[in-house]
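Need tokens for this chain, all 394 residues.
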Amino acid sequence: MPEKNDNLPELTASERLRYSRHLILPEVGLEGQQKLKAGGVLIIGAGGLGSPAGMYLAAAGVGKIGIVDFDKIDLSNLQRQILHATVDVGTSKCASAKKRMQEINPEIEIVVHEELVSQANIEALVKQYDVVIDATDNFSTRYLINDACVLGRKPNIYGAIYRFEGQASVFAPGQGPCYRCLFPTPPPPDTVPNCAEGGVLGVLAGVIGVLQATEAIRILIGMGTGLIGRLMLYDAMEMRFDTVNIKRNADCPICGDKPTITSVVDTAFSCAPSSADTAVDSASAQAVEEITAINLNQRLKNGDKFLLLDVRNPEEYILCSIPGSTLIPLPELEKRMKEFKLDEEKEIVVYCKSGARSRRAMGMLQDAGCKKVKNLTGGILAWIAEVDPTMMSY
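Here are the structure tokens for all 394 residues:
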């Protein structure tokens, strides 16, 4: 943001009309609106949080908005990702976001960064903007964003959602704690569910995303104290907001008194389930034996005898399931193992949505003495893609 008022850009006649409700607010006024026009915000993630944040920042007149995303739009996104429409399914999230935001306000600049955030590009991305909105959904990217913002002295507006709960904060270098002060190290990957496994109330993304946009506007204008040094918690079930104070950690490895992180480092972690996720609950971490959807289908056709175990939640099972499978949700598995009449030679094929929970179930079964346990590679999503595309996906 320019420091001197005479360096601020003038507003056109159409902009004065467009932003007239801002201009009559004493706390914003002409100078505040000029600061918004001069400012730049980078939104990392054009999904649930990035959608409302992007739309309101565009409407507010932020002069330059960057959008970072590399994903394509899936039908299941539309329940919460309001930047995108049904006709956009299968297309680039970045392209869809830019189109929608430009429709809201054609007088601002929308810059698309259609790329995966990484250690190699995060600093260059952050450097181009005044404020960063973290609208991502995984720990590894959040640490990258945090570190780049601390080193680049840029405010980092954090938001996260899961099921019916959301949280938001602002990590402003030199003014309060950073993300690593709040979460010094990432939790074990197998302990962190995500929206694909646990679901999320669609409007929850709107609440938290709008809070993030509000903080960006506040910072650009320079009004109020906002969420610096505070973590806001929102419970949609109880319709309650709570705020807890968070302090800078003097021993923080990047913003502490004696920092040990002096450049952006990659924190290898992802809470998203994938076929590469080998986390299991097994203490001995036995080897994971896989079976493909094609091979499983052939064995079912052959009438082979084995237990086909579904460890997803009942809500997921109702949507779709592999014929002949038995449902025992992962949280209930340990207590209900006796139902299998387990023995060492009993063959079990385990599946979930995409493979992460079934691997954890495998570890539990192996620890209980089962020797013939296989994991369905890619879970039921692979079954739908390779065996039965008529089955409902989610």
